Amino acid sequence: MRGLRAALRISRRTAWRSKGRSALILAMLALPVAVITFTLTAFATLYTAHQGHYPLGRADALVQGARELSGLRQSAWGDNVSLRPGTKATPYTRAEIAGFLPGSRLIPVSQRYIRYLAPGGYEQGLVRQVDLRDPLSQGTFRLARGRLPTAPGEAVISAKRLDEQVRPGVTLFAAEERRPLRIVGVALFAQVWPMPEVVAFPGSLPDSGFSSGNPIDMTYSWLVDAPRPLSWADVRRLNARGLLVASRAVADSASASAPQYDLKFDRSTLPVLPWMGIALLQVVLAAGPAFTVGRRRRAREFALVAAQGGSPAQLRLIALADGLLFGVAGAAPGAVIGVVAVPLATPGLELWAKALVDPFIVPWTSVALVAVLGVVAGVLAALAPAVGAGRTDAAAVLSGRRERRRDRAGRPLLGAALVVAGLTATAASARHGVHWIAASALLTQLGLVALVPALVGAVGRAAARLPLPLRFAVRDAVRNRGRTAPAVAAVMTTVVVLTATGVAWQTSVVHASPFERGQVQGPVGSLQITARDLTPQLWDRVRAVVLRELPKGVPLVEGRALATKAGVPLGVTLPLPARMQSQSYISREGEYGGLLAGDEGLLRFVLGREDPEAVAALRAGKAVVLNPATIREGRITAQIMAPYSTPPDKPASLSFPAVGAPPTGQGWARVVVAPEVAEKQGYGTATTLLAVNPADYRTPQATADRITAAVEAVTPHAVVRLETPHGPVDDSVALLVLAAAAAVLVLGMTFVATALAAAEARPDLETMAAVGAAPRTKRAVVAGQALVIALLGTTIGVLAGLPPGVATARVPSGLYRPVMVLRSDGVPVVEHPRPPALLLTIPWPLIALLVVGLPLLAALGGAVFTRSRLPLPRRRVT
Fold it and tell me: Any bridge partners for residue 222, and if so which?
């Protein structure tokens, strides 16, 4: 222990003398720790599950109940209620609840999913009614824009709901009575699900509108300001009276013992270990050259210790103390910075999440593990320099001569064995999962790290015919393999990850399963405008802007969906063929459903052909069914349900006389009926589709783009789609992200290693200046050093990144298994999507950037940012 204390004291004094190098090492070790710690803490803060029906704010409890619910049982958060099915209940009044909680102050709060009319059409969202000005509501929201509601008819919207058409100053019309709600502000709400879209002032909507029929939904409740916290005994006493209670004291006690968002050491953490190993290897290799240069600059110090009787073990201990000192000094502040940065970044996190962020949660186990790994990274980065320090030639160093010792060529046999084992494991792990591929890739990278010194030496033997700057750079890299190998390996490991990600991404995108691509919803060349719940006035405006962009005389096909007499769309379930009754399947019904009402133009669009018999049947009041197998006794029966009813209504049956149309593989609805037929059975219809039949006019892409912009200006809820054959997938954004990451990481590591190499090559540059070398020689030498490091690292990394990328693209996902598909025309088929057996898509632009662009850019940067004047030789005074 005394030896370690002395070594740490020596390391601290040396670090203080070399402030620039020390700051660089600390940044390399602290930055990854800070970034990972910040990410873990931010995710724990944002995504920790919040239980309960409603955020309590400053209230002591949230209560609701009825006399018929006496003896109910609940969880600590007021859910998991045990209740007899079909229980009917009349909620307690305010006076009755106040009698159960003497001395308490109550304010009403109600919430329910309600259909409301916005400027862009009807929408369905959670509407809450509570006085946000009351102190009990504080802590449940934060006002971002505007003001709070102060009178009935005023409301605020959540930041998640804010858009160009729903914003302060706009009036919404809620429920069937279309009660006006004027938006006066925008707020961030606490992350207790479900989160409200609209919060209105009490009295804006009638209390009867919040009755769900289920007494445990907490749709109409009371926030309680009690004289004292409500204990679990109080909750059970109130349960006996039929009250459902969410108590702050009970919930806080239960939350303290509930599992938090943190690392657990069990089988679920195994997939994380390979990624942790890759990250640790990256940090170790990035910081390794700095420790190597530090060891060589301290050669005289090590020689003096050796001359005074210091053993090789003591010299190694002094060098390892550097790693321990910098590891602790970098990891501890990095972890603190990462944790402290989360509350400082809370306003930004809230704007990103569009929700109120609770007091931040620190996953202490994960943070401690990251900090420990930071310390381990520092010690491992100093391991190779420590071995070199133990071999210091004291006589050579103290006499001013270079040590007659060359760096070893690594362990090529061990490295080759690891590479072969890693590649074999990569090929075998393609059938088991991405984390196994990552573990195999880590094994391959460790083998390449052991091989890099030998590879650098092999490159040096081919440098005889290179120009002087490049020849010098290559031979300097060979002569100082202890410094060069970690730098090349650091670039290599980064490029391996980027290459594997690029290959896997582009292969999966280009050869994606048909189930991952957009479904065909109409004939090729057709233009479709679909929306589920627009008003007739909005449809008139949409129709007008579409016709304005189309040539005169082009007809619009209109498809209508079943609706109530008031125009509320209805859900329709059509019968399945007999052989699909007990099978799982994928439905390819279009955006507008399986049943459409319309005229002969719609029928021609749906069938994709002229069919006089089908037209005659439609005119006769019969339904045209594209799959005759679903017709029973000459009729087709559909189940109808109102999607916005709470509680859900029982489905109603609707039967039409039907005629089958022979299936041809083309068909864009399952059933077509005339609107008059639905109206005779007591139902209405509402527009859900406008289309341009390609048989009438093939819409150009430019016209479709203009129509899209015009329709989006009318309503954001309408979708404009031009049906075109699947073409090449545009993955440019993902490749740009990978290219940016490659540029930052590869160039950063290369420049750091080049700066260290240039500093160590100062004696050689002084010699060049003494024999008359031109000033530009130094720029050329530094550029050559950057080129050698970057080119070696990227070339090896690309070659090593291809196998894991291919293996990742071949991981079974279940997307290429035979599956039953219900086509748009209602005909079931079994599809056998073919996997990309030997198809491999290489992201050549990314590979070119890595192998050619970045090395040249690194050389250019080394030349531009290096002073051209060569240093004059200095005589050492002895």
Answer: 63, 108
